Amino acid sequence: MVAAGKNMIVFDLACDNNHPFEGWFGSADDFTLQAKAGDIACPVCGSVEITRQLSAPYVNTRSGGKQSDESQMVSVANAAQELKKKFIDHVLNNTEDVGHRFPEEARRIFYKEAPERAIRGTASSQEVGELKEEGIDVMAIPGAPALPEKLH
């Protein structure tokens, strides 16, 4: 979420698979808290093992900005949070939870040893990488652990 009137810092980031991307944060502490909570995910592979890369961070210091601009930033952040919540709810309501058996079950479905269906569960970054190497499409859902009563 973006706080009205707060400067934003843009960091260069990378996942443990070396996919580069940018992230906007209110402070370096905001980045640290979100990264530790697993709330930042690589847009390429979904890994939540994220680190800051060496860069000169860009700081948006638009002082004297219009209140409507700040309100729009807050509205966009709120809309993004709502969209993320709806997406997670859709996944939870339309997939079968296979828990820690996810890598095994994804392979069984891919190799037609089990009925095709939408599944969800847990897998390590290494397991996700191995599945992708086999040509199995998987996607990490950042923030989903925030809803534990629905996951298991």
Task: Describe the protein's architecture and organization.
The protein has 152 residues and is α+β, with helices and mostly antiparallel strands. It folds into two domains: 8-91, no CATH class; 95-142, no CATH class. It is 39% helix and 16% strand. The strands form two sheets. Strands 1, 2, 3 and 4 form a four-stranded antiparallel beta sheet that branches. The longest helix is centred in the middle third of the chain and has 27 residues, at 67-93. The two termini are 27 Å apart. Residues 1-5 and 145-152 have low confidence and may be disordered.
Brief account:
With 152 residues, this protein is an alpha+beta fold.
How would you spell out the order of helices and strands? EEHEEHEHEHH
For the record, the count of structural domains works out to 2
Give the number of DSSP strands. 6
Strand content: 15-25%
| Biggest pleated sheet | 4 strands, antiparallel
Helix/strand-derived category reads alpha+beta
Q: Which stretches of 5+ consecutive residues score pLDDT under 50? A: 1-5, 145-152
Rg on CA atoms, Å: 18 Å
Tally of helical segments: 5
Distance between the termini: 27 Å
Query: Taking all residues together, what is the mean pLDDT?
Result: 78
What is the share of helical residues? 25-40%
* CA-based shape: globular
